[in-house]
What does this fold into?
Amino acid sequence: MKHWIALPRIEGVASRQAHADLPEGTFERELGKEGFFGPATHMYHTHPPTGWIAWDGPLRPRAFDLNKLPNKLSGTAEGPWKAAEILHNQALRYRFWRTEGAMPALARNADGDELLFLHEGQGALYCDYGHLAIRDGDYIVLPRGTMWRTEFDGPAAALLIEATNDSYRLPDKGLVGPHAIFDPAMLDAPAIDDAFRAQQTPQGKVEEWRVEIKRRNLVSTVTYPFNPLDAVGWHGNLAPVRVNIRDIRPLMSHRYHLPPSAHTTFLAGRFVVCSFVPRPFETDPGALKVPFFHNNDDFDEVIFYHRGDFFSRDNIDRGMVTFHPAGFTHGPHPKALQGMLKPRKAETDEYAVMVDARDALEVGDRAAETENAAYVDSWRGSESPKAAE
Ligand SMILES: [Fe+2]
It folds into this structure.
């Protein structure tokens, strides 16, 4: 148990309620520990904290347009171990996978649980546990060691988020109880059904199946004379699970802009996965309607934009990733900041997947070729809105 130095104190001109009733003409910044769960201070500034005019050195906000990743094997299937590595650290691998049709081999990740977020495409997942129909917006947790393959009806694209040497869990939903956000009964598991049995090798027939096993991030191939997805049944409390991002019912308050942690969907030991989904804007006249400026000082933040209009970002489109390492303050872009107190519409319509990592992330080789180098300058013009208007 951590015994924080608890010192709630008000100094100078300040609001007494975070994210509401800001002193006239000010911009609020949250300085916080432990990813919105630790000690924090809200500071009221006369300039937007993103109003920099120059930036030098290796630390900077980054943006990657994954739509630019060439689909080198267009028209053919490509296994997940050829996915482009975008970001990684010792606890996490964050990759973007484009494929089409049926995978040429089974995959098995011996390095950790895999979370697959299907950005585009629909089809079938076959794994040790059976068959599951899958579609865009699905989160699929594949426990470490599961043998699996996909058969998509056409092209598909997915984020692959590996919890290296770790397991995915559901967050503690605290005051709102276990059925909020999504009910655990919404989790689907694969079934031993006719489609699953139809892909099994008939007794007496020989057909070659390969399993590409990833361990220590190196791939080994094991070949069988039959399809090893040959189970006739199973029982237990370990299985892949699926929930679709459309089935998430977000927490919100009409009087208080909730922090991203309210939108936690899955977590592992050293990172969290949060889902931003459509919700009404706050209606209290004094409440902030856009994310507050903040430095989430203990975490590197990554957001993948799946669908919709990303209300806090300018010039960010579906299929893009923003990466905000710890160490600087970020917040709404200038156009979004205009709606700080008066939103332009009644509700957000964005779908996005956020990963907040406790350890510093490295940028992968394949991310560099997609980078928008001008992203660091995208907050230019932050000075224009007046908070009191
Ligand atoms: Fe953030």
In short: The chain has three helices and 21 strands. The helical segments are 194-198, 334-337, 365-368. Residues 294, 296, 301, 324, 330 surround fe (ii) ion (CB under 6 Å). The two ends are 44 Å apart (CA to CA).
